[in-house]
Amino acid sequence: MRVYLPCTLPGLARVADAGELGPAPLTGYAVTPALVEWYVSGDTEELEYVALTEAAKASLRMLAADRADGVPVVARRVVIAAEVPDGVVGSGTDLEERGRVRLAEVISMSKIAAVHVDDLAAVADIEAAISAQAAADSGDDDARFVVDGADAHELLWYATQEISDILP
């Protein structure tokens, strides 16, 4: 099963150094039965894009949380795509996030298929979205608009052997 795991550039550096993503349990996004039922008209590729987009939103939340804690992270969302056995993936029942899954094991580098990262051209919009995240969560429609603007940027695809090239 293809699972999309939200991350940050410092987190990706830790994955590259450790040779695995962990510790378990991990939260990711995938094409779940609930997502298929909700998004009835989509094919597998469209559904995987929805899962990737949800993971990118989670990455943005990670960046905002790091910034709130005083961690100086680069404003680029990161999503790790991994191929994992179905048996380690458990689906949640959260209707808000139909594609959210929990992984019961760490993910080794050999299971990572690719990494998706914002282009440098997206940094200003991602920076604005990070700053607006807390207000958006509190119901501010203008802030929600700013946060949603991050979705206008497509994440770039990188092979695992290119990870060292994208790390700061």
The helix tally amounts to: 6
Residue stretches low in confidence (pLDDT < 50, at least 5 long) are: none
The share of residues in extended strands comes to 15-25%
pLDDT averaged over residues: 89
The total domain count is: 1
Question: Largest sheet, described in full?
Answer: 7 strands, antiparallel
Q: How many strands in all?
A: 9
Q: Biggest sheet, strands in spatial order?
A: 5-6-3-1-4-8-9
Computed Rg: 15 Å
Helix content: 40-55%
Write the topology of this structure.
Blueprint: E1 2-7, H1 9-18, E2 20-21, E3 26-30, H2 33-38, H3 44-68, E4 78-83, E5 89-91, E6 100-103, E7 107-108, E8 112-118, H4 123-137, H5 141-149, E9 155-158, H6 163-166
Antiparallel strand pairs: 1-3, 1-4, 2-7, 3-6, 4-8, 5-6, 8-9
Helix pairs in contact: 3-4, 4-5
Describe the structure.
The chain has 168 residues and is of the alpha+beta class. The protein has one domain. It contains six helices and nine strands; from the N terminus they run E-H-E-E-H-H-E-E-E-E-E-H-H-E-H. The chain has helices spanning 9-18, 33-38, 44-68, 123-137, 141-149, 163-166, and strands at 2-7, 20-21, 26-30, 78-83, 89-91, 100-103, 107-108, 112-118, 155-158. The strands form two sheets. A seven-stranded antiparallel sheet has the order 5-6-3-1-4-8-9. Strands 2-7 form a two-stranded antiparallel ribbon. Strand 5 and strand 6 form a beta hairpin. The model has no long low-confidence stretch (mean pLDDT 89).
